[in-house]
Design a protein that fits this description.
Helix content: 40-55%
Number of helices: 2
Strand order of the largest sheet: 1-2
Structural class: alpha+beta
Distance between the termini: 84 Å
Radius of gyration: 24 Å
Largest sheet: 2 strands, antiparallel
Order of helices and strands: HEEH
Amino acid sequence: MIIIALALIAAQTPAAADPTKTPPAPADKPICRRESTTGSNMQVKTCHTKAEWQAIDAATQAGTDQALRNRPR
């Protein structure tokens, strides 16, 4: 009985990692951020690569700069 239980447990353990698979390059590794949406108390998890986050941050900064330049004085 114990031998059968041990055999079942051994069969359920994951196999060794495939050595031919390579981990993703650091630039392709997803980076996740928690963002708050206006009007909601729930945060949303958003994942992008480092390059995508840089593009998003640059676009956000450009929009902020434009809004500040066009504000009434």
